[in-house]
Amino acid sequence: MGIKSLLPGPLGFGTAPLGNMFRSIPDEEATATVEAAWNQGIRYFDTAPFYGAGLSELRLGEVLADRPRDEYVLSTKVGRVILDELEDPADRDLGEKGGLFEHGRANKMVDLYTADATLRSIEDSLERLRTDRLDIVWVHDVAQDFHGDDWLAVYETARTGAFRVLQNLRDEGVIKAWGLGVNRVEPIELTLDLDEPKPDAFLLAGRYTLLDHNRSLQRLLPAATAQDIDMVVGGPYSSGILAGGRHFEYQKAPADIIAKVERIKALAAGHGVSIKAAALQFALAHPATAAVVPGATRPSRIAEDVAALKETVPAAFWTALRDERLIAADAPAPTA
Fold it and tell me: Does the pTM exceed 0.90?
């Protein structure tokens, strides 16, 4: 199990922003950002039907269609089917993520985690992405933040539907790996306890960052390491607040989070460290982490991400973060 040998490097490109997350992005800007990622050497791209009701997949597929398919790794997600029927994106019930893609396409999205829906979702994604195959497929958002008290029932539908379909597709060689793509640790912990089916990896967004990592360190990451199951860290900038943005957990950042970020920034500045380097290198320091997939909608941000990985961060900075209790005492720190 695991996907480290499959991924081309530790830095991928998360394309949620290409679905018009938070704002309406011109097609030209979206295209230029994907092209910048390619030109900067990024060869792992993650997307989902949920991102703008297929908009992210369409935009990504338009650029990658001109690139050799064997030269990049592609992952998308299942759990939502995009219909031809239209709706007002601002009126969608997205649980804790209300209004997240209100600037996306108006196609109606339906949550479906059954076997048939999983196969349909994959076929639709292949068409939007203009490709003949997917490398990794994540089961998307089977968690509390979208489904509230019903999340366990939704999870059970996915376990007997999507999970088994994806395991069969992997065993048949149709896809190379599968797992869950979620914003909460509980569904992953539950899946790690299953006898079958067994995933290869997980994409965990927002739960192993400078701002939020204690819960993941308690059980999830030790269990994943013990089972040789890799983690892809999504949202390493915590929805943007760690990269100069104003959002945390996909909403306007609260005062306490803003204050914590300012403390981290002050320590970073004192050690000559960029906040992006601190965020990316922290997430990658855990042995379970296979890659980070920050998102972007401006070409210049891609170059910043690449530079952040190469930046030298002194050990004294991580010691200072621990001393100030800004990261957990048992969180692995990068080594030179």
Answer: yes
